[in-house]
Design goal:
Radius of gyration: 17 Å
Helix content: 25-40%
Distance between the termini: 35 Å
Number of strands: 9
Length: about 250
């Protein structure tokens, strides 16, 4: 059962949330996205260069549809002059590491620092808003509840606990130091926890309260890979209503 304010989602348009996936090269960002989008895993994934953009529509009980726009950044994004554009008006930032790779976790402190600086920079005149860049409508609920991005610290390869080098204590400490709202470990290879992670975060950002079974449901899905130019996906249709949401993190 979904418990929400009837007035909260009275408008029957589709909500849009922007997810940006961050972390070192080789931690499984693309693999996790493909698991979420298509429920598949490939050992032949090519490392992402720059950024790739995907879209998936998910539905919740109560006829609530949400379009997730997922930005898959390369491991070199940290040094990219386009980083601010990638992060612009993001609703959710997922910081990924490999639980069997100490180096991938150790560099996350730098990722947090640089990302925080990037999203706090003044907006460049003419920068497209979330709604116009995506060709979608940002719901009042989304814009009201994402004045700063929802951050999650995600460990990949939960199926390899026997060679895990990053213990939960270290992850908890890093999360506390950086104001992270969600800590989780998942497996791109087995699919463990991946769908539930995206659904849980989406529900949290939109203010929905779901039952356990609702986290794993995946009622409607559409995966569209779109070309990205100058840090923005090319719109499929003319820009619609613009809605701004601040994304600066303040400790």
């Amino acid at each position: 059962m979904v418990d929400h304010d009837p007035d909260q989602l009275a408008a029957q348009h589709e909500s849009v949330l922007k997810f940006v996936i961050l972390g070192e090269a080789g931690v499984g960002k693309t693999s996790i996205i493909h698991r979420f989008l298509n429920d598949r895993f490939s050992t032949d994934s090519i490392q992402t260069s720059g950024v790739e953009f995907h879209r998936k529509r998910i539905s919740f009980p109560g006829h609530i549809d949400v379009s997730l726009h997922v930005w898959d950044t390369g491991g070199n994004a940290l040094a990219s002059p386009m980083l601010s554009s990638y992060l612009h008006e993001a609703h959710v930032l997922l910081f990924l590491y490999d639980i069997t790779n100490t180096a991938s976790f150790s560099r996350l402190s730098e990722w947090f620092a640089i990302v925080r600086k990037a999203i706090c920079e003044p907006e460049t005149p003419g920068t497209a808003t979330a709604a116009s860049a995506y060709g979608g409508v940002l719901s009042d609920t989304a814009s009201r509840k994402t004045k700063e991005p929802y951050m999650a610290l995600i460990g990949n390869k939960s199926d390899m606990q026997h060679i895990r080098t990053i213990k939960s204590e270290k992850a908890n400490k890093l999360a506390q130091e950086n104001g992270v709202a969600e800590i989780s470990i998942v497996s791109a290879q087995s699919g463990d926890g991946v769908h539930a992670l995206f659904r849980k975060i989406t529900a949290t950002v939109l203010g929905l309260r779901l039952g356990r079974a609702d986290f794993e449901q995946d009622i409607v899905a559409a995966d569209v890979k779109r070309e990205v130019k100058d840090g923005k996906p090319l719109a499929e249709k003319p820009p619609m209503n613009r809605t701004r949401s601040a994304v600066c993190l303040i400790n």
